[in-house]
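Figure-free illustration: sequence to structure, shown twice.
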Amino acid sequence: FILAVDDSMESILDWYKEEGMIFKGGSGAGLNLSRIRSSKELLSSGGNASGPVSFMRGADASAGTIKSGGATRRAAKMVVLDVDHPDVEDFIATKVKEEEK
C-alpha cells in the first residue's frame, strides 16, 4: 500500500493508525514524508517542528512491534523523502545507521 501524509498532527496520527492496520493484515506500506515540515522550521507556538525523521523513527518502532499478520516477521515498510527537503541529509544518515544494525 502507498500512503499519503500531510503536515498536520491529525494526518500523522491517521497515518500511524492506517499503517498499523495494514501491518496487522499482513501487508506492507510505503510513504513519502516530504510534506512534513523540516525540523529546522519554527512553530507558530514557539520551538521547532519535529520534522519527518522523528516521525519516521516512531513509525519504524511501530513496524517493529506489530508482527505482520500475526507472524514472527517484522512488518515491511518503505519511507522516502524528496532530495530537496531541508532534512534530507538527516534522513539519509538515519537510514544508513538503521541498515548498519
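We now fold a second protein in the same way, so the two outputs can be compared directly.
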Amino acid sequence: MAAIEIVHRCLGERPIAARRFDNGIQHYVYEVSFTHRASLVIRMTVPEQRQAMVGAKFLSAKLRPLGVPLPEIVSSGVEDRFPWLLLERLSGTDIGDVLGDLSNDAIDRVAMGVANAQRCVSSIEGEGRFGYAIHPRMRRIAVGTK
C-alpha cells in the first residue's frame, strides 16, 4: 500500500497498519499505526489536486503559530507524483461522527472553538471581502513556497 511505503521511506520505520478514514470527500487519508510510536495521518491526493496540498502546507505554517488547532506536518511530498502530507494524529473523533450525540453545551464549546479559529484566520492577509485564495496575491503557489 502506498501510504505504508511513503511513511516507511520518511521515518525509516514500517507502520504495522494503515486504516483509511471513511469520511472526507477529496483526498485519500489514512491513520498509520506503529508498534513503538503514536499513530500518524497521511493525506494523499492526485496530481490534479497538488495545489490543495501545497495550500494546506502553506496555510498550516501561517495558522498554527496563531493558535489554530491544526496538526503538525511531520513530513511532506508536495512535489512527488502523487502529493502527500504526513501529519500528527490529533486526538478525538471526527465531529461528523459524534455531532448528533453532543449536548448543547458541548456544541456551544465547539462553536466557540470554531469562532476563535476564524478570528485567528481573519488576522492574516486575505483575498478580499468575498474571495478565497491560499495566498492573497496569487491564485497558485509555487510548489517550493514555504
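Summary for the second example: The chain is about 30% helix and 15% strand.
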